[in-house]
Amino acid sequence: MLLYRLYVVISYLLIPVVALVLFWKGLSNRAYWEHFEERFGFGRRRLDRPGIWVHAVSVGEVVAASSLVAALRKKHPDIPVVVTTVTPTGAQQVRDLFGDEVLHSYAPYDTPGAVRRFFRRMRPRLAIVMETELWPNMYGECGKRGVPLVLANARISPRSVKRYQRFSSLFREALSNGILIAAQSEQDAARFLRVGANPEHVLVTGNLKADLSFPRGLIESGQRFRDANFPRRPTWIAASTHEGEEAAALDAHDRVRARVPGALLLLVPRHPNRFEGVAELLAARYPGFRRRSLSQAPGGDDPVYLVDTLGELPMFYAAADAAFVGGSLVPIGGHNLLEPAVLSLPVITGPHNFNAEQTAGLLQDAGGLELVADGAALGDAMAALLADPEQRRERGLRGCRAAAQSGGALERLLRLLDPLLVRND
């Protein structure tokens, strides 16, 4: 209890700091100033009747939640849905995927007052938090109001376990209020138990990302873009890259082009606030390179094309022959390996995949994923793939089959949620 009181005091003291950070970020990206008041529980947007609240921090979590939200809207068309995010890029992804079918709001900061105001505005009858977000005040308010809370597609990394264990009493209390945890894997379930979750409320439902399905039009758009601009060029994509990985990918591409002349790299940085920095890096090596944000297309023998837009990664996966998934050459923990796999792309990733160990193991065991240690190894592995169409095809099919066989998480999760919605009718 003492630790919780200290947490509340600190959360209030940090409000001016948070506001200043948002103001500073807004100087370069005005989206951080939009609906600023919602981050403190205020705002005009509200649900007119109790609904389902889905919280997804940013783009990756929104994409993971997309099949769930669509299924909930289909099964319960009379129940409104609000989707909250923390980042503006996540907010844009909600608008792109769902339009007016759901209400978007920024999630409140975890102070008692902001959380109470949010609950009064949105009146949730069921709360679903995607992946890993442990907020004591948010969870406590669900308990006080009798709102069922489910951690969906829940995961927790070994590094996070150590952090949560330092404040074990705080998070043990947060996780003890009847919260249901639908974990991605047995490893994730075990880690939640280690930080204080109730064993009776922890289930393994699988990874929702394995149930991803892309609209046929999106795949065709990627293929049309390729046919119009680089139809016969061997092409690979470096997706969701972080600082340090772009330079490694460019070095790798030099090795690729030494063996596969004319090869093209589609470079897709993870965060929009880094787009300009990556553009400067490219300009120093390849003056005159082309950018997606300027509506340019790769021309002639351009070595690299910068995809500096949001929401188009699946389309560019569909335009590529093979994929490297970032956040893995640096200790970020890796990003979504299933997205390229379901499109039958052979996948390469770095050694840091602690955010999705089971998925990496599944694809690697099937022969659809190759792990590399550094940029040089990435270049050699990618060159071998681009030089061998038969190997690409075989590895892509193996990964696609493995991804399909690991599906079913959505169905299992919906079975878990249905009684909670009936109970609150």
Q: Could you explain the architecture of this structure?
A:
The chain is of the alpha/beta class. It is 48% helix and 15% strand. The chain has a 7-stranded parallel beta sheet, sandwiched between helices. It is globular.
Number of strands: 14
The radius of gyration is 22 Å
Poorly predicted segments: none
What amount of the residues lies in strands? Answer: 5-15%
The domain tally reads: 2
CATH class placement of the largest domain: Alpha Beta
State the oligomer.
single chain
Lateral strand order in the biggest sheet: 3-2-1-4-5-6-7
Helical proportion, percent range: 40-55%
Structural classification: alpha/beta
- What is the CATH architecture assignment of the largest domain? 3-Layer(aba) Sandwich
CATH topology of the largest domain: Rossmann fold
- Spatial gap, N to C terminus: 34 Å
Mean pLDDT reading: 91
CATH superfamily heading of the largest domain: 3-Deoxy-D-manno-octulosonic-acid transferase, N-terminal domain
Which shape, going by the Cα principal axes? globular
Largest sheet: 7 strands, parallel
Number of helical segments with 4 or more residues: 18
